[in-house]
Amino acid sequence: MFDIEKIQKVLPHRFPFLLIDRVLEVEPGKRAVVLKNVSINEGFFAGHFPGNPLMPETLIMEAMAQASIMLLADEGEQKKFDVYLGSVKADFLHPVRPGDQLKITVEAIKIVSEQGLVSVTVEVEGKLVARGQIGFVVKWM
What is the C-alpha to C-alpha distance for residues 29 and 128, in angstroms, rounded to an integer? Predict the structure, then answer.
């Protein structure tokens, strides 16, 4: 399990763009399960939308992408790398609202030394709210 300090060692993102809170499981190169707690205090809720707050799909997609990077993490090693988004295909099935907890599950479809393709699902209380595939390129340092 990765807490926020370990996540910050892997991801370069910081407030307000660090969009995962905890990593529950990582099987490097194969699978990761990540949580994002959606709080009414998130800045985007002020404008999206007043009186009907919804988490923007672009930020759900960003949380999915950050969760995907965790497939490259290994608790025992601190390898340095940059990851660049290559492709995105996503479906958003239900709105995400303040108070929701996103459970993001990433499954590797194919990962080779410098590229990856993953399948991602996002659930809230067991209900599928988004799904997709993400392709990325890795630059190892």
Answer: 23
